[in-house]
Design brief:
By secondary structure, this protein is an alpha+beta fold. It has one domain. It is built from 20 helices and eleven strands. The strands form four sheets. A four-stranded antiparallel β-sheet has the order 4-5-6-7, with helices on one face. The protein has a three-stranded mixed β-sheet with strand order 1-3-2, with no helix packed on it. A two-stranded antiparallel ribbon has the order 8-9. A hairpin with a 2-residue loop joins strand 8 (174-177) and strand 9. Helix 9 (280-294) packs across helix 17. The radius of gyration is 28 Å and the shape is globular. GO terms for molecular function: amino acid:sodium symporter activity; L-amino acid transmembrane transporter activity; metal ion binding. It comes from Orchesella cincta. This is Sodium-dependent nutrient amino acid transporter 1.
Length: 596
């Protein structure tokens, strides 16, 4: 008799005289794989040959007498999934990941942090919160970009309408009010008709500004055009969004180091403060920066990887992306503190006075320094804000693309353009709260409750689930199957112990030592804090809800059986390609025999 099974492997079992060789994989039924045999008259008949368990393949009730040969999966094997988009060129994946990780966080967040010191669905909520306020900053960048084309930069000269009780001084970009140094550009940002800021939000956040609302709309239109065609479109965009910022950063760095006082700023940036290494807040800030910069836990990394061939060397990609992210953060730090050092020298003040955290660095300190350039400051301003917007497009398309992919994969009947349109419309209207007079209060609130806290918790759950529920040995075995390399003790120690324990300790410490949330020293009204906790609760509640769903949809008849089954891979778990899946199952069997 000759049984036909998947061409991925051949099994010769002399114990019962049965030979299984290359043929057609017959459909699975329950836990049994059925084969087709031929009797002496040539008639076909069906019968079970392999019972597929969770960890082994059993041949007629016993293990095969010898280990089957396992062929290595190739990129061609995964091409059977024609319905799923793939990158037009392998470099597009790498550029997209770099464009995602190298974003506004490297330019306005890392330098100041360095200076100062249903997991999927839950992460989706946190990701959407981030992308909603992220694009609002892109809208502000667009406004500054167009304002930079003026014959004289609007923030380079004092306008009495903004000055209040303080007097404008000729040829000065700052003034003193109540013995405090105030930059003209800060007044331009907070007191003019474009983006007036409220002192508090006790009486509400106000109405969206017209100009910034239009800039926000333009930002979402550009994101829509980048995403509507899937990775084949966004991959092409990545060529520009990943490369152009480096051109501008190097131009600004070369210009910055030639300014008087620049090296004092650079030395301030790289001089370590060793006593702070014992401060847990420094470690929390470092971890938060890594999460924000690399988009760890947000979903785009997994989303981008899902469009790769099965055997893509993600080990090498992870190293390159992390290295480029760190390099870019340092490059941005040198560039920014060189210019801030020059600004501090001109104003004869300490550099800590001119350094602003968060958006203030990108929209106050840095543009003010550019306005003092001796020649064509408008050119450098245009380049700077174009670079900021390009960085924003790279990261925002990654974050929004991750959300769109969730819906398209979960509900295949939804066309990609429909999902993209819906996400962009919802994102625009939700982002209007950030372009109100109380918008910066809302940004801080959303970032704290809806993004940082939620993503942090989801990352802890994710790494714990992968390491301890699915299992480190299974994970390392799968990586060996995909890439042909064995991971050593270092990775097992980090994934299985150090990372989950460190993240949990940092989270507990942060919660225990947390103080009341404020924005620029101003307390939030109780209703705002309540809304923040409600937002966090919505995202975190998805974990137990989907856990309950996973338990009660299992096939076991008893509750304990369902609970146990919910912690085990389902029948659908594994490579999607039938050919690669068959190779993977035999590879698992081979590893079990080797370890037995």
């Amino acid at each position: 008799e000759l049984g036909h099974i998947n061409p991925a492997f051949n099994v010769d079992d002399p114990g019962n005289g049965l030979v299984l060789n290359a043929g057609d994989l017959n459909r699975p039924y329950g836990n049994n794989l059925f084969y087709i045999t031929h009797d002496s008259q040539g008639q076909k008949k069906n019968g079970p040959i392999f019972t597929v368990g969770q960890n082994s393949i059993i041949n007629n009730g016993s293990l095969p007498p010898k280990v089957p040969e396992v062929s290595t999966p190739s990129a061609d094997d995964s091409n059977e999934e024609e319905e799923r988009d793939t990158w037009g060129n392998p470099i597009e994946f790498l550029l997209s990941c770099i464009s995602m990780s190298v974003g506004l966080g490297n330019v306005w967040r890392f330098p100041f942090v360095a200076y100062e010191n249903g997991v999927g669905y839950g992460s989706m909520v946190g990701t959407f919160v981030v992308v909603s306020f992220y694009v609002s900053l892109m809208g502000l960048t667009i406004y500054y970009f167009f304002a930079s084309f003026a014959a004289v930069l609007p923030w380079a000269q004092c306008d009495p309408a903004w000055a209040g009780e303080a007097a404008c001084e000729p040829n000065s970009t700052y003034l003193k009010e109540n013995n405090l140094l105030i930059y003209i550009i800060f007044l331009f940002l907070t007191r003019n008709e474009v983006f007036p800021q409220k002192a508090n939000i006790d009486d509400g956040i106000g109405y969206p500004g017209l100009y910034l609302s239009l800039c926000l709309l333009l930002s979402w239109v550009i994101i829509f055009l980048s995403l509507v065609k899937g990775v084949k479109g966004s991959g092409k965009v990545a060529y520009f969004t990943a490369i152009f910022p480096y051109v501008v950063l190097f131009i600004l760095l070369i210009r910055g180091v030639t300014l008087p006082g620049a090296w004092s700023g650079i030395l301030f940036f790289i001089t370590p403060q060793w006593h702070k290494i014992y401060d847990p807040n420094v470690w929390y800030a470092a971890v938060s920066q890594c999460f924000f910069s690399l988009s760890t836990g947000f979903g785009p990394i997994i989303m981008f990887s899902s469009y790769n061939p099965f055997t893509r060397n993600v080990y090498k990609d992870a190293f390159i992306i992390s290295l480029m992210d760190t390099f870019t953060s340092l490059l941005a730090g040198f560039t920014i503190f060189a210019i801030l050092g020059s600004l501090a020298t001109q104003l004869d003040v300490d550099i800590t006075v001119v350094a602003k955290s968060g958006p203030g660095l990108a929209f106050i300190s840095y543009p003010d320094a550019i306005s003092k350039f001796d020649w064509v400051p408008q050119l450098f301003a245009v380049l700077f804000f174009l670079m900021l917007f390009t960085l924003g497009v790279g990261s925002a398309t990654s974050l929004a693309g991750g959300i769109i992919t969730i819906f398209c994969d979960q509900f295949p009947s939804i066309a990609r353009w429909q999902a993209t349109t819906a996400i962009c419309i919802i994102g625009f209207f939700s982002g209007l709260i950030y372009v109100t007079p109380g918008g910066q209060f809302m940004l801080t609130l959303a970032d704290y409750f809806g993004a940082s806290f939620v993503i942090y918790v989801m990352a802890i759950v994710e790494v714990t689930a992968v390491s301890w529920v699915y299992g480190l040995n299974n994970l390392c075995r799968d990586i060996e199957f995909m890439l042909g390399i064995k991971l050593g003790f270092y990775w097992k120690f980090c994934w299985g112990f150090f990372i989950p324990v460190a993240l949990i300790v940092i989270l507990v410490y942060t919660l225990v030592t947390a103080t009341e949330l404020t924005h620029n020293g101003v307390n939030y009204p109780p209703v705002a804090i309540g809304c923040g906790w409600a937002l966090a609760a919505i995202a975190l509640s998805l974990l137990p809800l989907w856990a309950i769903h996973a338990v009660f949809t299992r096939k076991s008849k008893t509750f304990l059986g369902k609970l146990k089954e919910s912690f085990q891979p389902t029948e659908k778990w594994g490579p999607k390609s039938p050919k690669i899946r068959a190779q993977w199952m035999l590879f698992k069997q081979q590893k079990e025999l080797e370890n037995s």
